[in-house]
UniProtKB/TrEMBL annotation:
Residues 280-290 have a biased composition (Basic and acidic residues). This is Hyccin. It comes from the Eukaryota. Coiled coil: none annotated. Residues 1-39, 270-304 are annotated as: Disordered. Its main location: membrane. GO terms for cellular component: cytosol; plasma membrane. Residues 1-24 have a biased composition (Low complexity). It is found in: Cell membrane; Cytoplasm, Cytosol. The lineage of its organism: Eukaryota, Viridiplantae, Streptophyta, Embryophyta, Tracheophyta. Keywords: Cell membrane, Cytoplasm, Membrane. InterPro entries: ARM-type_fold, Hyccin. It comes from Theobroma cacao (Cacao).
Length: 435
């Protein structure tokens, strides 16, 4: 590479002239760097440039993205646009997407490298769709004939590297509560002892190692770490992004397990019988005659009953007050994939937000409710104790929240009906006074 040459020589005259010239010119002012209006305009210009470049990559309807680029908040406008989501989703879902030469993957990669937080948020919003398509193709039956997915992997590695840099080589830790110490919710029976050595610390995620490629042995930790980065911004994600995630999570669990509704049925029997020792997980294999020792016995009749599995799910979701269309649509995304804890942990964490986030729509909550039941059935057959405990807690909280909401709605309906019912006029009271 050629570097520019300095025309000055080493003579005293040239050095003196140079020093004198620099002495008469003060350093440039930095007021523009501290001007918030200048920073805002620079951010908007950068967002418009990236969105206009995106419009040139999509096959049609580029005018939609161009109009979004002219808004005051281009990235956020694109984030909340259903038409833009449909365009990008179709491009990412095409059979030829995800290769190393895919221009859309290159756009996502370069946009995430930007320092603008809104542009990075825009890329993260498509992470559920991108990771869902990537994992489904990798673990599909005909994965050997698929083209290279280097484009998808480049985006995942960019997000992984960003998260690894933010952690600075440190693990994610959590303080495990010590019941011997008082808290807001309890007072220990014995006198508490201030012994710091008894404090327990759990490791949510080990220190992240740098990776230059996605290897099969590191795929789960790379995708899981990318989902951790998504979870940090999940409260700002649009509803369509969370719905995509819930649909893929349900499909990753597998579509041929009829026991995903057993938990709700067991709780129903538990309430009717009044037996406090009943456990939904313990009764999975006993009540379903199509499972033996955790392995499904596929007879000819079982193959004919595959459609009945989805019907059972839809009926159970209807009993919980969940939209039937959401339960049916969840059966159409992705394929069954391996679910190690490195990948399942962030999935369960995100689903917990989708269930109980105060700003989430009812569609997102219903889709998450279906997904956690699918994952609970999968964890029960995989005998994954961490996943079983976490998902069982989410299901119980979901059921109690829905029961409370249903009771509140019924009480409100009774109150309104009582208010509209005319009341009979009371007869005037007659007081008898004796003389």
């Amino acid at each position: 590479m050629d570097f520019p040459h300095n025309p000055s020589t080493n003579s005293p005259s040239s050095s003196s002239s140079t020093s004198s010239s620099t002495a008469h010119h003060p350093p440039p002012s930095t007021t523009t760097d501290n001007d918030p209006m200048h920073s805002w305009w620079e951010s908007v210009s950068k967002q418009r440039s990236r969105i206009l470049s995106l419009s040139s990559l999509l096959p049609s309807d580029g005018l939609t993205l161009s109009s979004l680029a002219d808004s005051d908040r281009p990235a956020l406008s694109l984030l909340s646009s259903p038409a833009a989501y449909s365009l990008i989703s179709s491009a990412l879902s095409s059979p030829s997407s995800g290769s190393g030469s895919d221009p859309l993957c290159q756009w996502l990669y370069e946009t995430f490298q930007s320092s603008d937080p809104h542009l990075r948020l825009l890329v993260l919003s498509f992470l559920p769709l991108l990771s869902g398509i990537y994992l489904s193709r990798i673990h599909s039956s005909d994965s050997s004939s698929l083209p290279s997915l280097a484009g998808f992997e480049a985006v995942l590695l960019a997000v992984y590297s960003s998260e690894a840099k933010s952690r600075s080589g440190k693990p994610l830790l959590v303080q495990i509560p010590d019941l011997s110490q008082p808290s807001l919710y309890h007072t220990p029976r014995n006198k508490p002892v201030n012994d710091r050595s008894r404090q327990s610390v759990g490791v949510l995620s080990p220190p992240l190692e740098p990776h230059l490629a996605v290897k099969s042995t590191k795929r789960a930790i790379i995708v899981g770490t990318a989902l951790d980065c998504y979870y940090k911004q999940v409260s700002q994600m649009p509803a369509w992004s969370k719905l995509e995630f819930c649909k893929f999570a349900a499909a990753w669990a597998g579509q041929d397990c009829p026991c995903r509704t057993k938990f709700d049925a067991d709780d129903h029997d538990h309430n009717e019988n009044g037996n406090g020792n009943s456990n939904g997980h313990d009764r999975f294999f006993r009540e379903d005659s199509r499972f033996s020792n955790g392995t499904r016995n596929r007879d000819d009749d079982d193959v004919d009953d595959e459609d009945d599995v989805i019907k059972d799910v839809v009926v159970e979701m209807d009993n919980l007050g969940i939209n039937k269309e959401d339960a049916e649509n969840l059966e159409k995304k992705g394929v069954r994939i391996p679910l190690p804890w490195e990948l399942l942990r962030p999935v369960v964490t995100i689903l917990g937000h989708c269930l109980f986030g105060p700003s989430n729509s009812q569609d997102v909550k219903d889709a998450a409710s279906v997904a956690i039941r699918c994952l609970y059935a999968r964890a029960s057959h995989d005998l994954a104790p961490q996943a079983i405990l976490a998902l069982q807690s989410l299901i119980r909280l979901d059921k109690s929240a829905r029961a409370a909401a249903k009771a509140a709605a019924a009480a409100a309906a009774n109150t309104s009906s009582n208010a509209n019912t005319p009341s009979k006029a009371k007869k005037p009271e007659i007081l008898l006074v004796s003389k």
